[in-house]
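Help needed: design a sequence for this.
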């Protein structure tokens, strides 16, 4: 049974196990009659060959309140795009597969490049950003949910609980962030959230003092979750990070643009498991190593924009304070795991904390060397102001791909 604790910074919507999926679905169907709901699925072609996505589609095929599903397909050639069209055809909802690597979509990207508005690098951030632009061009949805395509524990209850706070017209929330326990294969998972973000925020509060933004991030039980629901009104001016800081970046944008009472976190699953990234201790350009650097940079940039002064001495102190906080939390995670019959490899966890401590310094060096770097993709409002026909032309490009490669 969940608790009912509220942290006082953002609202926490718990699952008290008192309503069924069918009950929530009935209500969402009623609301969807006047408040259209869409779903974005950013997907690599390789995920079509995994174990998670077929189950996700099976569950989604039983969801009656979704108006449109937008699948952003990355790293696919023409034959793979055709196969993806067939693969997703089991969905009974109105759905579209956007072939991000098609010649027409590349031409759209070239136009953005000419304007200086193109995403700086490929990845999930660019994929989600493109899907948002497509939905905004359709102009027929009031709520959009986003989740990954590698969730092996997925069920439709997860989507219903994620959407409910922003779909219910009697609630004030414009952004809902999903949270859950990261447990799988008899282990506590979620290394970056547990061993980087939580102790880093504790350390930052000690080193740089009280900041409302730090308290805001600490209020989220799982700030790195890839599941979120938003009212489409906030999407026009949402800056999507192009690197691995996507989830922290979206929370930062909600902090910048919305009142705290407009943001909530919602418990969407008893347990959650998905594809795990390698730590990549020897290569800072991939895996959790790169992710940790990008997340740190995203937090540093946001605090700097709010007036926090960083220098090399601050980052050295932050590294030391972080490491002590991480070891303290590791003790708590280990005891929690033991009581619940789960495993935590303390040696590996300490090695992970050591790597993250080094990456805090690396992120600090990158920040100090490039303090004005802005890895955010421009907002769709800015794109529309620079080229008022681009979003419409994107719709036409997607439609032409569907026709020519069907």
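Sure. Designed sequence:
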């Amino acid at each position: 049974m969940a608790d009912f604790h509220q942290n006082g910074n953002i609202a926490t919507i718990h699952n008290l196990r008192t309503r069924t999926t069918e009950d929530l679905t009935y209500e969402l169907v009623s609301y969807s009659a006047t408040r259209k709901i869409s779903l974005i699925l950013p997907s690599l072609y390789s995920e079509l060959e995994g174990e998670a996505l077929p189950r996700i589609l099976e569950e989604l095929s039983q969801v009656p309140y979704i108006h449109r599903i937008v699948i952003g397909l990355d790293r696919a050639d023409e034959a793979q795009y055709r196969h993806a069209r067939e693969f997703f055809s089991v969905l009974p909802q109105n759905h579209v597969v956007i072939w991000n690597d098609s010649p027409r979509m590349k031409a759209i990207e070239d136009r953005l490049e000419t304007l200086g508005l193109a995403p700086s690098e490929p990845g999930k951030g660019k994929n989600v950003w493109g899907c948002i632009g497509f939905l905004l061009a359709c102009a027929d949805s009031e709520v959009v949910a986003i989740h990954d395509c590698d969730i092996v524990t997925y069920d439709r209850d997860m989507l219903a609980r994620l959407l409910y706070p922003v779909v219910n017209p009697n609630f004030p929330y414009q952004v809902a962030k999903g949270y859950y326990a990261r447990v799988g294969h008899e282990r506590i998972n979620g290394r970056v959230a547990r061993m980087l973000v939580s102790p880093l925020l504790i350390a930052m509060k000690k080193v740089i003092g009280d900041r409302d933004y730090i308290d805001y991030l600490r209020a989220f039980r799982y700030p790195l979750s890839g599941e979120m629901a938003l009212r489409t009104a906030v999407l026009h001016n949402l800056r999507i990070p192009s690197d691995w800081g996507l989830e922290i970046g979206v929370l930062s944008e909600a902090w910048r643009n919305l009142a705290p009472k407009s943001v909530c976190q919602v418990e969407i699953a008893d347990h959650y498991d998905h594809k795990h990234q390698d730590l990549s201790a020897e290569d800072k350009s991939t895996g959790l190593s790169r992710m940790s650097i990008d997340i740190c940079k995203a937090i540093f940039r946001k605090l700097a924009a709010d007036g926090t002064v960083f220098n090399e001495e601050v980052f050295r102190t932050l590294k030391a304070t972080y490491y002590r906080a991480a070891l303290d939390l590791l003790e708590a995670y280990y005891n929690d795991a033991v009581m619940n019959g789960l495993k935590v490899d303390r040696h590996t966890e300490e090695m992970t904390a050591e790597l993250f401590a080094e990456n805090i310094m690396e992120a600090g060096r990158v920040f100090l060397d490039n303090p004005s770097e802005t890895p955010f993709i421009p907002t769709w409002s800015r794109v529309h102001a620079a080229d008022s026909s681009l979003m419409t032309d994107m719709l036409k490009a997607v439609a032409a791909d569907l026709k020519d490669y069907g």
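Residues 8 and 219 are 8 Å apart (CA to CA).
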